[in-house]
Amino acid sequence: GQSQDKEDILSADIIFGSPEALLSSEWKDKLNDLNITVIVIDEFHLIATWGQNDKDSKLAFRRWFGEIGELRTICPGACVLALSATCTQKAKKRVMKVVTFKADHVSIFISPDKRNIKYIVKRVTNNTEMSMTWVVDGLLELGKLFPKILIYCKSISVVANIFDYITDEVSEKLHSCVPMYHSETEDAIKETILTSISDPQDKIRIIISTNALGMGVDFKNLSNVILFGPPNSMLDVVQELGRAGRNGERAVAILMYKSHHLSQCDEEVKVLYQTPECRRISMMKPFLGDNDLEQLKLDIGDHTCCDICQQKCTCKNCALLTLEKLLTGQDFSSYQYDEVLSDTSDEMSDEIIDDNKSYFKL
């Protein structure tokens, strides 16, 4: 019964809860009976992005994130540990105000810059299908050896559009390589996709998704991300691009956009997509202080940084990853074929070559 539930809660060492639950009248009463010593806020940047009304006066997505500072009133003796892997300087100031951090608080900062990810911006036509022909061509050429990629889209309708186009253009044998992931996707399919992300030998090659696929997912074996349409804020850009390269290996993130896509974006995002200067510098400006930015400028500048830096690179050995070669329409030689094949088990390789021999241009 309810009395037993309350007794269980009162005897717990750690309590997990959403802001909506913890700030409800029922939970406030329970928290008052507890000796709370530490309040941990994970992904604290969501206080600024989900808990605040936006610039167009739209209501907050989840307003209780913006009220989470009330926990300090309920538990006045508790210290607060707030964690985030991606928080802009502006968002940090808002969060500190909401959570009422004291002036003598301790702040530990590590740059969110991932030097192993290369950033490429590609403006495309208003025809979504034409924009994705290079992906289809690559899948037809490499079949199940196509490098695993995650394509983020801004809406379920765009996800469905790209999914329909790709599956219409390839053999039915390859349909299982191209799933969709969004809020309406069946749970069983979601579980299959989540398992495939951490397994480089899994048959799934292209995951087309909204940002429903993200928080709490282990992306350790994903090296290729495409943003089809820019997120509205730089914080979301860095979050989505950061799903690539978590194993420390070289990775590539391609930011594709149509001319009208930028109209609803923050100014920082517009600059990133349109700048003639280093993309990494533009991306990190909202996150880093002046000294860190100056140091970053000294550390970057070759073909592994971004498409702008690649144009200026003088190393004369600009090796590209498979997805970059597909984007630029380069022919595949035997060593490039082996590059993809090396990530696949011998047993799966034999099966793949047999199943897809009609798709390889060997």
From TrEMBL:
Domain of life: Eukaryota
Ranges of residues in domain Helicase ATP-binding: 1-105
GO BP term, pick one: double-strand break repair via homologous recombination
Domain Helicase C-terminal residues, every copy: 134-294
EC number(s) from the headed UniProt entry: 5.6.2.4
Top class in the EC scheme: isomerase
InterPro entries for the chain: DEAD/DEAH_box_helicase_dom, Helicase_ATP-bd, Helicase_C-like, P-loop_NTPase
Gene3D superfamilies assigned to the protein according to its UniProt record, in alphabetical order: P-loop containing nucleotide triphosphate hydrolases
GO CC terms of this entry: chromosome; cytoplasm; nucleus
Keyword DNA-binding: yes
Catalytic activity annotation: Couples ATP hydrolysis with the unwinding of duplex DNA by translocating in the 3'-5' direction
MF annotations from Gene Ontology: 3'-5' DNA helicase activity; ATP binding; DNA binding; four-way junction helicase activity
Alphabetical UniProt keywords: ATP-binding, DNA-binding, Isomerase, Nucleotide-binding, Nucleus
Leader sequence segment: none
SUPFAM superfamilies the UniProt entry points to: P-loop containing nucleoside triphosphate hydrolases
UniProt xrefs under SMART domains: HELICc
Protein family: Belongs to the helicase family. RecQ subfamily.
Name the UniProt record assigns to this protein: DNA 3'-5' helicase
UniProt organism field: Pinctada imbricata (Atlantic pearl-oyster)
